[in-house]
Amino acid sequence: MPAMLLFEYAVLRVVPRVEREEFLNVGVIVYCRSQGFLETRFELPEARLLAFAPGLDLEEITARLQAFARICQGRATGGTIGQLPIAERFRWLTATRSTVVQTSPVHPGLCADASETLARLYTQLVE
After folding, report:
1. What's the gap between Cα 13 and its chain centre?
2. Are 100 and 60 a contacting pair, CB within 8 Å?
3. How far apart are CA 2 and CA 111, in angstroms?
4. Beta carbons within 10 angstroms of residue 7's beta carbon
5. Alpha helices, H only, the chain
6. Would you put residue 19 in left (φ > 0), alpha (ψ -120 to 50) or beta?
7. pLDDT for 60
8. Tally: H helices and E strands in the chain
């Protein structure tokens, strides 16, 4: 049996009107220090979002989610935050904020393969 490693994850949410506290899950971000893994997976269900919040700026939301992905990659394209150590990038991405793209609280778990865990969580929590 493979060794089980600690990982942390948060759900990416689109919150069209922050004051209403209503949201749609659109992605997941997973961090596993032992595997040096930080990755996000998301998809924007445009029809659902527009039914949920007509007039929502989907281009802006897509750009914000793509910024999450660039920061996870840890390259210069992720800006100053994208060049921080992996743990700091995860903490920055999952910090509490009051914007149209937010994350859930961070949850811990155990996994053998962080990439497989990301796919499983995405299926369970977003699809």
Report:
1. 8
2. yes
3. 9
4. 23
5. 46-52, 58-73, 79-82, 86-93, 114-125
6. alpha
7. 93
8. 5, 5
Distance of alpha carbon 80 from alpha carbon 113, whole angstroms: 28
Residue with tokens 């948060």: 10
As averages over each run of 10 residues, the pLDDT of the chain (127 residues) reads 90 91 95 97 93 91 94 89 94 91 96 97 97
Residue type, 75: R
Burial group, residue 88, by CB count within 10 angstroms (0-12, 13-18, 19+): exposed
Contact at 8 Å (CB) between 90 and 31? yes
Q: If you search the block for the tokens 């897509």, which residue do you land on?
A: 62
Radius of gyration in angstroms for the set of CA atoms belonging to the chain, rounded to a whole number: 15
Structure tokens at 23: 């949201």
CA dist 67 to 62, 110, 125, Å? 9, 27, 21
What is the rounded distance in angstroms from the CA atom of residue 89 to the CA atom of residue 64?
15
Q: Measure the CA–CA gap between 27 and 35, rounded to whole angstroms.
A: 21
Query: 0.90 exceeded by the pTM?
Result: yes
pLDDT at 41: 98
